[in-house]
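Re-running CidA/LrgA family protein to confirm reproducibility after the cluster update. Everything else is unchanged from the original entry.
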Amino acid sequence: MCQLVGEVVVHLFGWPIPGAVLGMILFFGWLTLRRAGDDSREARAGDLLVKYMPILFVPATVGWVAYGPQVVAQWLPGLVGAFVSWGLTLVLVGWCAQLLRPRRRPAGEAS
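Result of re-run:
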């Protein structure tokens, strides 16, 4: 239900984020506000999802089986790309955090 609401909201407002991400945020907020116990419907649904989570790894495994030789043959560009994208993400997140951080004024400066 939260994913559906997220998809509808993203579609209505034209937000540039996936509806599933907004749905997860809504679901997290719901769980935080509700503080559901271990025997709640949400906990049982989560247990069911965790039970079938290995199915999500099937596409990646099929990709490795089908394209494994190409991935192994091109390991260096893949590794360099992974580290460059990781480093770029780290720098950009730090830069954005600096921009969004509230500024402190010196003690003698008037507001």
